[in-house]
Structure formats: C-alpha cells, structure tokens
Design brief:
Length: 300
C-alpha cells in the first residue's frame, strides 16, 4: 500500500501538468489602450501564440472590463495569467493572488513613462497651470493614466478636488486622449506608449498636442500568473518567456508587449522590488482621496 501511494505521489506532478496542458489557460488583459476587445487581444495574441508553440500549452485571451476586474479575475481564479498595469499587479500581489511571470525588455530596459498632455498653443504648459482646467484620467487603478499623474499633481501642491476643474474618468488611455483631441477636456493623462500608438495609427496628431509633464520611470506593465497554478506549470511558463527571443520558430514579429509594440524579449527574473515605486505612489492616493475624486468625476 505504501509503495502504491509513493508511486501516485511521484506521478501526481506530471498528471497535474498534463491536465493543465489539456485545458486552455485563461489570459485576461487590462483594457489599457481602449479600442475594441478584438484589437487588444490582437496586441498580445502573437506573444502567446509563440509561447504556445514552444510549450504545447494553449491560451484563451479575453479583455477585462476594467483594471479592477482583471485583479478580481486573478483573485477568484477565473484567470490563470494576466497582463496587468504595475499598480493593478501590486494590488493582486498584495492579496496573494498573483506573482510575476515576466516583464518586457526593450533596449535593455523594462521601463515606461506616464504623461500629462495638453493642446498645443493652449494655456497649460506646466502642472501648476492645470488649476481651474479640466482633465481626463483613465482607469482609477491605472499606474500611468491615473496614479502617477495624480501623484505629480499632488507633488505640485495642487489639491485635485479644490484646484482642478472638471475631472473625467474615461476608463482607458485612448479614451482620455480622444477626450483631449475632441475638445472635451483641456488636459489628459496617459502613458507615452499609448500616446505614440495613437499618433502612429493616425488617431492623434503630435503637432496638435504638447507634453506638460513626464513621470519618473515606471516598471513595464507585467505579465503575471496566478498563485493557484501548479509549480511545474509556473516553471514551464517562466522558462518559455525567458527563452522566447531565441526559441526556434519564434520570429521577432511575434515578441510583442504593451500596446502590441515589438520588444526585444522578456525578463522572467525581473526583481519584485522594482514594483516598490508604484506601491509608494499608491500610498499617496488613499481610498478616501479616490472616493472624493470619483465623486468629483461624477458631477456634470
């Protein structure tokens, strides 16, 4: 009897991994750039197709309705893997739902930047000029379209409730930029990656807009995996992402990151400590502050 149990124990990891192979792993993506769900899935389909090719694993990609929805998907185990913003990742990690899988590398770095943008020729040239003017933010749990820009506003000694004009929460980077270009607001917060993507796709003209402020470096939005996954599967995923750039049959066009842009590869050993910066930024904007901002944004 003992030997039968021992054999079963030894076979269990392989059996568990085999079961995971048979089902498609659920991947949930934050709606970082807005647009259609099909377009967002298309941004990440190439890289997950590449991982599928070298591992034999299958993936089903879907887009969450909000950043918080993706965090909840990780925590209720309806998602196995997720593309998260840095702040959303910290939220899921602190709840014990997610751990780092990999972070995209470009030109030897894993960083991006948040920005506050305004119309060229307008009165807003620095953060202090936002006083009395309307501004659009993305998702309230987004690092680069809310948390970091709001922290910059607070750092400039502006009270977002008292000093800002109308505040709009649009839900995504692309929606915030559209609100600016269409004249619905006088400033907008979004990542430089989203801004460049919009310009490249003809959705915005860089000559019509200007940069009001640029954030400190933010670690790239990570791909995370659920803590509920078997250790053998986690290792398989990490190994695949780490070797993606040199894997046979994987072309450079397949190695995609935030916004669907081509990247050099993925760092599967990215230091967890790098996310301390978003964590500190989160501390400057507590739930009470978020509640006040949500209330202000709900006003006509």
């Amino acid at each position: 009897m003992f030997f039968r149990l021992l054999i079963l124990a030894l076979l269990l990891p392989a059996a568990t991994l085999a079961a995971e192979k048979q089902r498609a792993l659920e991947v949930v993506l934050i709606p970082a750039d807005g647009g259609t769900e099909e377009g967002t899935r298309a941004d990440f389909a190439p890289v997950f197709n590449a991982v599928a090719r070298i591992t034999g694993l299958q993936f089903t990609l879907r887009v969450g309705q909000s950043y918080n929805a993706v965090v909840e998907a990780m925590c209720n185990r309806s998602a196995d893997v997720a593309f998260l913003g840095p702040v959303a990742y910290v939220q899921a990690h602190e709840r014990g739902c997610a751990e780092l899988l990999a972070v995209a590398i470009e030109n030897g770095k894993s960083v991006y930047y948040a920005g506050i943008f305004a119309r060229a020729g307008g009165p807003i040239t620095k953060i202090g000029d936002l006083k009395g003017h309307s501004i659009a933010f993305g998702d309230i749990n987004s690092a680069s379209s809310f948390v970091f820009p709001m922290a910059m506003i607070l750092g400039a000694k502006l009270d977002p409730i008292r000093d800002l004009g109308a505040v709009r929460l649009t839900g995504s980077h692309a929606n915030s930029l559209a609100a600016l270009t269409q004249g619905q607001v006088e400033a907008a917060s979004l990542s430089f990656e989203s801004f460049e993507k919009a310009v490249n796709q003809g959705a915005a003209n860089s000559k019509d807009l200007k940069v009001v402020a640029r954030s400190v470096a933010i670690p790239n939005p990570p791909i995370a995996m659920g803590t509920h996954l078997p250790p053998e599967l986690k290792l398989k995923l990490k190994t695949a992402f780490a070797g993606l750039a040199t894997a046979p049959g994987v072309t450079p066009e397949m190695i995609r990151g935030y916004g669907g842009r081509k990247v050099d590869g993925y760092d599967a050993n990215f230091p967890e400590a790098q996310f301390s910066v978003p964590a500190k930024m989160m501390e400057t904007i507590d739930d009470a502050m978020k509640g006040k901002i949500l209330k202000k944004a709900s006003q006509p």
